Amino acid sequence: MYADLVAGIGRGLDISSYPLLSGLARMGPANAVQLGREIGLDRSGTSRYASRLEAGGLLRRSPDPDARGTLLSLTEDGEEVVGLLRRRLAELLGRRLVGWSAPEAEAFVAGLERFVWELRDELG
């Protein structure tokens, strides 16, 4: 499904891009450790993926005013791509839920949200 999500966009996007971009959109500027914790990657993996997205003009690095580290944040183009990816994801999920009643779809979404939050709590 992620392959369909990023198809044709270019700019260094692959199936691993959505969690990183979406995480930054939720959190705002964050260092690689904070973002990695949010999306379930270690610092080196987060930094590696961030480098590709930075080269594609979707995120920027800036000095962290509170530490000696670096903050990652979305560029304007990055924010636009996140919006596009979210719309595509909604369309993809909508196609997979065709034929489900509204209560079934709502129960699925509620269960999935609970699963994600519990998993985040468990992973720290």
TrEMBL record:
GO molecular-function term, one example from the UniProt record: DNA-binding transcription factor activity
SUPFAM superfamilies found in the cross-reference section: Winged helix' DNA-binding domain (SSF46785)
Pfam families: MarR_2 (PF12802)
Biological process terms in GO annotation: response to stress
Domain HTH marR-type stretches: 6-105
InterPro entries: HTH_MarR-typ, MarR/SlyA-like, WH-like_DNA-bd_sf, WH_DNA-bd_sf
Family matches, as PANTHER family: MARR-FAMILY TRANSCRIPTIONAL REGULATOR, TRANSCRIPTIONAL REGULATOR, MARR FAMILY
Name of this protein: MarR-family transcriptional regulator
Protein's organism: Frankia alni (strain DSM 45986 / CECT 9034 / ACN14a)
